[in-house]
Backbone:
């Protein structure tokens, strides 16, 4: 799951706690971690849903001003058969490999 640096920084600050993705198949697992440029993210619950079911609260938690902003972003994303709501949080620096 690729995330822009400004999104990663907002996750680190706790301002973003959700992400949405259209996938052929999920690339992260609930309860797992994701190594990023800013450190490790915790992947919380992953819920398959319809984009039509995204609430205003969900949109704000994902960093959008409102559902209309979310829908404009969604229109720019690639199409995929699966749409998921993914809870994310910052864990800390990634261990050195």
Residues:
């Amino acid at each position: 799951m690729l995330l822009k640096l400004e999104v990663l920084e907002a996750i680190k600050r706790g301002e973003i706690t959700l992400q949405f993705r259209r996938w052929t198949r999920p690339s992260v697992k609930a309860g797992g971690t994701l190594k990023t440029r800013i450190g490790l993210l915790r992947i919380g619950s992953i819920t398959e849903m319809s984009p039509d079911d995204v609430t205003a609260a969900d949109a704000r938690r994902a960093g959008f001003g409102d559902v209309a902003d979310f829908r404009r972003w969604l229109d720019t994303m690639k199409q995929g058969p699966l749409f998921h709501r993914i809870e994310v949080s910052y864990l800390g620096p990634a261990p050195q490999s």
